[in-house]
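ARCHIVE CARD
Drawer: 12
Card no.: 0347
Subject: one protein chain, sequence and derived structure
Cross-reference: see card 0346
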Amino acid sequence: MSISNRMLQSIERGSWIRRMFEQGRRLKVQHGADKVFDFSLGNPDLDPPAEVLAVLAEEAARTGHMIHSYMPNAGLQEAREAVAAGYNRRLGLDLVPDDVVMTSGAAGAMNITLKALLEPGDEVIGFVPYFAEYTFYVDNHAGTFVPVPTDATFLPDLPALEAALTPRTKAVIVNSPNNPTGRLYPAALLEGLAAVLTRASARFGHPIYLISDEPYRALVYDGLPCPSPIAFYPDTLVASSHSKDFSLAGERIGHLVISPRCAARAQVRQGTIFANRILGFVNANALMQRVVARTAGLDLAVDPALYQRRRDRLSDALHAMGYRFQKPEGAFYLFPRSPLPDETRFCDLLLEELIIAVPGSGFGLPGFFRLSYAVEDAVIDSALPGFERAARRAGILA
């Protein structure tokens, strides 16, 4: 056998998102790209802010001795200073640059965190539905992923969380704005979550870390605030990136922020920096760190109003057809209930209309499906007749 059984099993249960994306690529070759309506991948399609592009061009053209060399594994000092300053201004924190580790995207931040924290068999809780890669990230570092339900509106079920906590629980992952639901966690919910984890940490005699995955922080609608758990719970670690706010997903630049109130702050810092090295990241991209150093403190981001307009166009039309869902408050995903009990069968109906959706099973919650509206307006408008035909065939529209 050429690769490990473990990897073969992982591939077999691998991400529905990529599977459907590849299906879309094949259909585009067969039918033409303009005839296929691909809502599978959360790939931001807005242009980066002009100011960011200008800085990127300047930094790419810059010359100088050793500017492309290795650096400390934690990243460039000036980039860490800019990230810390941005958090301090937004959330009233007192971060210092040493509380920031520059990473290869939010995924890199989560992996170095789990590498630093987990003993084999330690449990990491995630709320259903969850971003599919979380299970693999935890497995990468010999942990056990424990799914815990959300309520009917996709907010974390705190009594269910309290019941699921055990002495082996090392961390809880939250993601707000959420992928796949678009749900935004309000401050009161985060305060309640902090209280649950504080009690459990005292009961078990060790901290339970809260890992907050926040790449969609800047994509919030209707003027709503976007609180972060780092303001409520001392042992919070924030993983984030500029994939969504700057539309730079392919550049893989992100960061980990360690709460200044974290009891084991120094050890967590040392562990994550060392993990950055031994996982092979070594350091985050030098060019992009220089861009972040000049832009992270300026509150730049793509205009969320463009995504909000798409949300409204898609959700209003689908609701009129009989689809039911929690209207998203952020990110760029819609997570409707499937009109058929088996959502994979309904996604097959959509495929017949050349519409690519992702089954909810890929996010741990069968019976739903995910649509990414990080697509051009014309894709939404052209797909609506197909959604309507599928709704009729599924019996939710007369």
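Annotation on reverse: The domain at 5-48+303-394 is CATH 3.90.1150.10 (Aspartate Aminotransferase, domain 1). The first helix runs from residue 5 to 12.
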